[in-house]
Amino acid sequence: MQGPGGIQVKRVTVVDGDTIRARGQSASIRLVGFNTPETYNPVCEAGLALGKQATARLKELLRNASSIDLEIVPCACRPGTQGTEDCNYGRQCGKLSVDGRDVGRTLISEGLAAPFRCGTTACPPTPRPWCK
């Protein structure tokens, strides 16, 4: 199932638990609706371990998928900054589904991610419950 503007992709490379690269897209893609711990410059040690697990799980979901659907969506950035370093570090934003299920929902349900919803032009502080 694809949403409006969705594309079916065959080749996806996982950067970390909430960032991918997809063949045919020029920039990396920040997956929206959830946050996983950083694996590069982690905020805390617990985050590093969980971030590695989230990254491995996303790779597993993609490896075992029959279908992978990607929908590019607007990032929550100030007007005029979309596609620049001032907006999401130059990344695009997207929603990724594997076999019809949003990967963010899967990672959240498995305790590997936290819900993270942004407004249209800004995001709240990034949730990091694993660093308590």
Automatic annotation (TrEMBL):
InterPro entries: SNase_OB-fold_sf, Staphylococal_nuclease_OB-fold. Residues 5-113 form the TNase-like domain. This is Thermonuclease family protein.
